[in-house]
């Protein structure tokens, strides 16, 4: 066999510095960026959640007029209003709860703290 027809010796593939950076560095950078953005989304989302809406209410002004209530799973404004003052018209109590807690949409989240008017 002549030297020109002999198969070339198999050599191990070696990555250059740039190749290692592309192969390992860029995916690591992408994963790190995704983790940072996810963490920020969770932190900012929890700060803006509806469960924190009632914390904006000035509780000093409501002393003697309203009591705090924690919303449970399945609660609605109607059921909370009916339990808080059964002697009054439920629609009026719902309107008071919405006004006291600055609930624009009336959508409640489990764990949210609301202030409900005390019985008169």
From TrEMBL:
InterPro entries: LysM, LysM_dom_sf
SMART domains per record: LysM
Pfam family, one: LysM
Signal peptide residues on this chain, from the entry's feature table: none
Span of domain LysM: 67-116
Listed Gene3D superfamilies: LysM domain
Source species of the chain: Arthrobacter wenxiniae
UniProt superkingdom: Bacteria
Protein name: LysM peptidoglycan-binding domain-containing protein
PROSITE patterns on file: LYSM
């Amino acid at each position: 066999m002549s030297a020109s027809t002999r198969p070339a010796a198999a050599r191990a593939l070696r990555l250059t510095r740039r190749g290692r950076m592309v192969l390992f560095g860029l995916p690591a950078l992408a994963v790190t960026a995704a983790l940072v953005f996810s963490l920020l989304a969770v932190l900012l989302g929890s700060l803006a959640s509806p469960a924190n809406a009632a914390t904006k209410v000035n509780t000093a002004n409501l002393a003697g007029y309203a009591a705090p209530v924690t919303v449970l799973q399945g609660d609605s404004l109607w059921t909370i209003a009916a339990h808080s003052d059964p002697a009054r018209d439920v629609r009026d109590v719902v309107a008071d709860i919405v006004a006291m807690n600055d609930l624009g949409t009336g959508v409640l989240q489990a764990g949210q703290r609301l202030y409900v008017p005390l019985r008169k």
